[in-house]
Write a structure and sequence with these properties.
The complex is a heterodimer of chains A (about 110) and B (about 120).
Chain A: E1 4-7, E2 10-13, E3 19-25, E4 33-38, E5 45-49, E6 53-54, E7 62-67, E8 70-75, E9 85-90, E10 98-99, E11 103-107
Chain B: E1 3-7, E2 11-12, E3 18-25, E4 33-39, E5 45-52, E6 57-59, E7 67-72, E8 77-82, E9 91-101, E10 104-110, E11 114-118
Parallel strand pairs in B: 2-11
Antiparallel strand pairs in B: 1-3, 3-8, 4-5, 4-9, 5-6, 7-8, 9-10, 9-11
Classes of the chains: A mainly beta (about 110), B mainly beta (about 120).
């Protein structure tokens, strides 16, 4: 199975900060990488697919980049509603799907 | 857009079978691919399997012998069955749609989740 490793596991940031988190695959997955946001008690929400394509309705302050094994999710100016846990997910080995362990973004 | 509503018992006894359903509205169960994902308390996300509108199924190899997914077109729903459950199967279970673009897949619509506790 392809392993997905996210770092950091948590970070503290302030409103307005630029936030970056990473996701690394145990082997090349081309651009088969999706990002989700999950708030407490809620289902995950798709933010970005195919590594860098913004899902409809997602604010443009979210962006994704990367290809191969290393990927990044960036929030250009953190907003109060962005405090959540973010997960990456690979679909390269579809139908065997794996998620990263998550990055929790907390208020500093 | 597709909306998903989940149903099933919130408490299952050890060694018994967990059965959940996901009812599709604003869409047809014959028109998409579907998936189940779970999240143990305080933990990350674990993909359980896919069921395609053709009824082809693909399961997480770690659960393959215990999991079954099916479609019920008369009810416009798809279902998950997990046998011989233990406390380790306690989790929030989510159903979701699988979208595909140029061969890439992602989960674009999710059900609200249902907490299933395995306990006697």
């Amino acid at each position: 199975d392809i392993q997905m490793t996210q770092s950091p596991s948590s970070l503290s940031a302030s409103v307005g900060d630029r936030v970056t988190m990473t996701c690394r695959a145990s082997q090349s997955i081309n651009k088969y990488l999706n990002w989700y946001q999950q708030k407490p008690g809620k289902a995950p929400k798709l933010l970005i697919y195919i590594a860098s394509t913004l899902q409809s309705g997602v604010p443009s302050r979210f962006s994704g980049s990367g290809s191969g094994t290393d990927f990044t999710l960036t929030i250009s100016s953190l907003q109060p509603e962005d405090f959540a846990t973010y997960y990456c997910q690979q679909s390269y080995s579809t139908p065997q799907i794996t998620f990263g362990g998550g990055t929790k973004v907390e208020i500093k | 857009q597709v909306q998903l509503q989940q149903s099933g018992p919130g408490l299952v006894k050890p060694s018994e079978t967990l059965s959940l359903a996901c009812t599709v509205s604003s869409g047809s169960v014959n028109s998409y691919y579907w998936t189940w994902i779970r999240q143990s308390p305080g933990k990350g996300l674990e993909w359980l399997g896919y069921i395609y509108y053709s009824r082809s199924t693909y399961y997480n190899s770690s659960l393959k012998s215990r999991v079954t997914m099916s479609l019920d077109t008369s009810k416009n729903q798809f279902s998950l069955s997990l046998t011989s459950v233990t406390a380790a199967d306690t989790a929030v279970y989510y159903c979701a749609t699988v979208a595909t673009t140029r061969g890439y897949s992602y989960f674009d619509f999710w059900g609200p989740g249902i907490l299933v506790t395995v306990s006697s």
